[in-house]
Amino acid sequence: MPKALPSNPRRALLIKLGHIGDVLVTTPVVTALKERWPDLAVDLVVNPGTEAMVAHNPQINQVLTLKRNHAGPLAAAAWHLGFLSRLRGANYDLSLELAEGDRGAFLSWASGARLRVGFRPKTPRMRGRAFHVLAPRWDDEHHMVEAFLGQVRALGLEPGDTALKLEPGPRGRAEAARLLGQAGLEPGGYVVVHPTSRWMFKTWTPEGNAALLDHLAELGHRVVLTSGPDAKEREMVARIKALAAPGAVALDLSGQLDLDSLGGLIANARLFVGVDSAPMHMAAALGVPVLTIFGPSGEQMWGPWQVPSEVVVGDCREHPCGRAGCQDSKVSRCLVELPAGRVIEATDRLLQRTG
């Protein structure tokens, strides 16, 4: 099997089986490949529920979703055989597996791509044999974008434009415009505050968020609140609103937006405020200034990428611990004890810097 980089590859397969933000953060890899080969057709395999991050990206030929739920074992086997046959029949010249999972390695190998790239395993493992080229594994000192672009560099390419790319699509933009119009909000005339995450141990306190909302309102900013649809996230937003001053929230859209509409909303915001979660990466991809709060996870690896930002980190000598709360308790003391004043000061700095 040839192991040299094809001189003029026609089709490439990218595999990123991760969460919503993980998929978005891989988009600079697509840009780098298209910079080198403008006519390259790039297909991307993702998990269900993450497609919106790349569905409207004009650089991507097609998005393939790896189905997880099936009627039974026979249905699962039939679907996967069909999916593997589809990959094999595409005759890929190049494959990049942008995670470190056995499933992704198997899909890359099964595709039969002429040249397959993956990350060097932390310890010797069979999965490394699925690839012809192994790129350096990530570390906690560099952003994950750099880790993903390491696979591009392992091919001898040097990326130019390394920004994240997100397009909410016509429907997402139109729905956001409709909701904003109903509330009398103009483009650039509001701040999006997304205080929650599907992992609640990443979130700040309701009291701190309420103090920040009051401060933004005092400065004359109109706040739009958003969150995911999960009951815990919506309950937290309700607690924040109850603690904030009357009128501090101009529009509450918590739990009401799909990812396309959320992207359309963030795209025209004056500022985005949130925690380490996918919407923070969406704001960065849309060029919106970001104020973000980090607790257990590392801002060096996952902070806002190439956008004006302020990152507030909870005080803890073990940061980043990477745990699901202190001792995996689902409660992060570094965030519970984070004073509102630090976040408010960072917000003021960012607003002043970005006009």
TrEMBL record:
GO terms for biological process: lipopolysaccharide core region biosynthetic process. One of its GO terms (cellular component) is cytosol. It holds the Pfam family Glyco_transf_9. Gene3D superfamilies: Glycogen Phosphorylase B. SUPFAM superfamilies: UDP-Glycosyltransferase/glycogen phosphorylase (SSF53756). Keywords: Glycosyltransferase, Transferase. One of its GO terms (molecular function) is ADP-heptose-lipopolysaccharide heptosyltransferase activity. NCBIfam families: heptsyl_trn_III. This is Lipopolysaccharide heptosyltransferase III.
